[in-house]
Design brief:
It is a single chain. By secondary structure, the chain is mainly beta. It has one domain (31-156, 210-544, 561-639): Maltoporin, Chain A. It has a 22-stranded antiparallel barrel. A 6-stranded mixed β-sheet has the order 1-2-8-9-6-7. It has a 4-stranded mixed β-sheet with strand order 25-26-30-29. This is Ligand-gated channel protein. Residues 247-706 form the TonB-dependent receptor-like beta-barrel domain. Residues 1-23 form the signal peptide. Its main location: membrane.
């Protein structure tokens, strides 16, 4: 093992030493190049450029937040449910691709216990994107429902990402490998751009296995299993764009992105009778047709009319069976569970030209859109009886739901003078949810009303920035957010002697109000940002377990009472919650502080801390991230020929007082207790870098967790199900071994652009 590690380290050092080998070939590149890096704004937004995504070897959402404070992952074993920020997670953090929101995860505690459904949020492959914007803090003004605690926006590849400067045509080939999950990634693309036409096509294929663990548990079956369940994923990603300038003022475009992801898991940690293998699938298609108008003069500065279509199917195919006495597997059941979303939207955007007045320069914007989303569940279950006989049952667990939305947005970006600027906007949304008749068998659908439910939401955003001097800037930002309840939260019903789940069509939309003050500085010496924030949540929605009385349907004269006491699960709005915290980020270009230090050497640091409180209950918000500190040093060649970065990360522990959960017992009395699985603090060290060979080839390599630290992340532990047949552990905690993060691991990539 030590020999292999040494060879890996030598390989990385070899990559980083290539600039010296090829120095003569690169001598003509003596001008200083400006490279797009990660950008942090005073309103809490972080913009990761395509260059940062490539240099940091970002392959998934976990890699995306690796060096970002106050942002985590909603991790639940097989299922990744999106992001966690500002103390909330999952559906409370919006995700969109090119401005089109991805659907919510539809799940309740009943089906979460068995893992038969795929409750993942759709994940966008970084190979498809030119940039990722992480907005921390309420952002429904820009993103609509779901951006309660913030949002993540993916912007897809454009021709300029492939066509090199001075050329009309460009090609791309990139191949990479990561040892943490034995994953290969291969991407090919081509693009063309001239005065009239712009076209780009890209295909990426990613295949790999389960994420490795540094745990040393036993390779057994059941909840005590100490190694990760074997899995194999195959992800296909597509992109095609074509645009044409009719003349200098008019452009039409057609854009498509899609994905087909499969992950087959042999669930050896499954705790129910027999065995199970599950194929989780995600299919996504996005189409956009747009017309743009660029006036040469006049009041109107820009017009865009476009149509979006999105079709997403999230599914899980479960293969189940028992073991024969000789250990051979018998296949007894095939459960195919799918959640389907079909989305249509038409959009109009009008931007004004800069309007000069005695009260400053104004840039006005008006946007409006009408959208309709159809959601439905289809289950196809096959029961096998021997080798020849089988029975097929097609059903649904709830009614289909149609969601219609119309919104109107007004925004004014104002430059009052050379120092003072502001950004003010207001948005009105009208949303209507209508349960529809199911065309397949649905056991409890007749228990749910078909009446529509409407929501009206007013969102706003206001920002004020003051440029103290050319270096320092101060800012204040306030914004609001909301989240419409999901179809499952409002309409799912299940009645059984073992448990009851009740619909609640009277739910309110969750609301949030985020305020932040910031102080930032930036010049050739470096940059610095300090942000203090507070987010208040209202009508927070939770699934609550309450004791109640239910009528005996078969009660006769022998019953002592026509009612019996039982437990009900139901989504309800609780009072309110509060999150507050701070973030500090900074970077110093050391050459500008000490002239003897070569140009390109820098140091950086970041710290994130937050705390929160749920009112009306003694529970905690488990999604609040523990303290995180990042320190780094690096060198970027002024001619952009090579670079090397080192990162030191401190992951704080989750304290018991901040991890209180609600519990119920068989005597139906409730209380709170400390979440049983808390992470310890850990210190990690990473190194990564790049080297260019000539004008067309770039090599990148990284080593992560260099000192092989054994640690849990809080995100992985809080996703463990306490009562479930999947993603759970035994009472002795032996199964926690499989939840350890990977040990020392490596990533490599080679990129050729021509």
């Amino acid at each position: 093992m030590k020999k292999n590690t040494a060879l890996m380290l030598l390989a990385i050092l070899g990559v980083l030493s290539l600039p010296n080998v090829f120095a003569e070939e690169l001598v003509e590149l003596d001008e200083v190049r400006v490279v797009a890096k990660e950008e942090a704004k005073t309103n809490g937004e972080i913009k990761k450029s395509r260059r940062v995504i490539q240099d940091e070897l970002i392959a998934d959402t976990k890699d995306l937040v690796r060096y970002t404070t106050d942002v985590g992952i909603a991790d639940s074993g097989r299922h990744n449910k999106g992001f966690a920020m500002r103390g909330v997670e999952g559906n409370r953090v919006g995700i969109n691709i090119d401005g089109v929101s991805l659907p919510d995860s539809e799940e309740n505690s009943l089906y979460a216990r068995y893992g038969n459904f795929n409750s993942s949020r759709v994940q966008i492959d970084p190979e498809l994107v030119t940039g990722i914007d992480i907005m921390r803090g309420a952002d429904s003004f820009a993103q609509g429902s779901g951006a309660l605690g913030g949002g993540v926006s993916y912007r897809t590849v454009v021709a300029d990402d492939i066509v090199q400067m001075g050329n009309r045509f460009g090609g791309l080939f990139r191949s990479g490998y990561a040892t943490k999950n034995n994953e290969w990634t291969n991407t090919v693309g081509a693009a063309y751009k001239d005065e009239k036409w712009e076209a780009v096509g890209l295909y990426s294929y990613r295949r790999g296995h389960e994420l490795k663990s540094l745990g040393n548990g036993a390779d057994i079956s059941g909840a005590a299993r100490g190694v990760p369940d074997p899995s194999h994923h195959r992800n296909h990603n597509y992109l095609a764009k074509l645009s044409y300038f009719i003349n200098d003022n008019h452009r039409i475009s057609l854009n498509y992105t899609g994905q087909n992801h499969e992950n087959l898991t042999d669930e050896r940690s499954y705790t129910f009778v027999g065995w199970r293998r599950t194929l989780d699938t995600t299919e996504r298609d996005n189409l956009n047709v747009a017309y743009e108008y660029f006036p040469s003069n006049g009041l109107l500065g820009y017009l865009k009319l476009d149509y979006d279509w999105q079709k997403i199917t999230v599914g899980a195919i479960n293969l189940k069976g028992l073991y024969r006495t000789d250990g051979v597997e018998d296949l007894d059941d095939i459960f195919d569970r799918r959640m389907k979303n079909d989305f249509h939207r038409i959009n109009l955007r009008l931007d004004s030209s800069p309007l000069e007045s005695r009260w400053g320069t104004h840039n006005l914007s008006l946007r409006t859109a009408y959208s309709q989303r159809e959601f439905k569940n289809i289950n196809k279950d096959i029961y096998l009886f021997g080798e020849l006989d089988q029975a097929l049952y097609i059903s649904a667990v709830q009614k289909p739901v149609r969601t219609q939305n119309i919104y109107l947005l007004l925004q004014d970006k104002i430059m009052w003078n050379e120092q003072l600027s502001s950004d003010v906007g207001v948005r009105y949304d009208f949303t209507k949810l209508t349960p529809r008749a199911s065309n397949v068998y649905c056991q409890f659908c007749d228990q749910v009303s078909s009446a529509s439910t409407t929501f009206q939401n007013l969102s706003g955003s206001f920002g004020l920035d003051y440029q103290i001097n050319p270096t320092w800037k101060a800012g204040y930002h306030i914004s609001s957010g909301y989240r419409i309840p999901t179809a499952t939260e409002m309409y799912f019903t299940f009645l059984n002697a073992a448990g009851n789940w009740l619909a609640n069509p009277n739910l309110k939309a969750e609301r949030s109000l985020n305020q932040s003050v910031a102080l930032a500085a930036e010049n050739e010496q470096g940059n610095f940002a300090l942000q203090l924030y507070r987010t208040n949540y209202k009508d927070f929605l939770y699934e609550r377990e309450t004791a109640g009385w239910r009528l005996h349907t078969n009660c006769d004269f022998r019953c002592s009472s026509p009612y019996y006491r039982t437990l009900f699960q139901q989504a309800v709005n609780i009072d309110r919650a509060k999150i507050s915290g701070l973030e500090v980020r900074g970077m110093l270009n050391l050459h500008h502080w000490v002239a003897a230090i070569p140009q390109g050497i820098s140091v950086m640091g970041a710290l994130g801390y937050s705390k929160g409180k749920l009112y009306g209950t003694s529970e905690s918000l488990l999604s609040i991230q523990p303290v995180k500190v990042i320190l780094g040093a690096g060198y970027d060649d002024p001619n952009d020929r090579w670079g090397l970065q080192a990162r030191w990360t401190y992951l704080g522990q989750k304290k018991g007082k901040d991890a209180q959960i609600l519990t119920y017992y068989y005597d139906q009395s409730g209380g709170t207790s400390t979440y049983p699985f808390l992470n310890r603090s850990a210190v990690l060290f990473d190194m990564y870098g790049f080297a260019k060979i000539g004008k067309h080839t770039t090599l990148r390599a990284g080593v992560y967790n260099l000192f092989n630290r054994k640690y849990h992340t809080w995100d992985s532990l809080r996703g463990i199900n306490l009562q479930s047949t999947t993603n759970t552990v035994d009472r002795e905690g032996k199964g926690l071994e499989r939840f350890y993060a990977p040990g020392r691991n490596y990533a490599f990539s080679v990129e050729i652009k021509f």
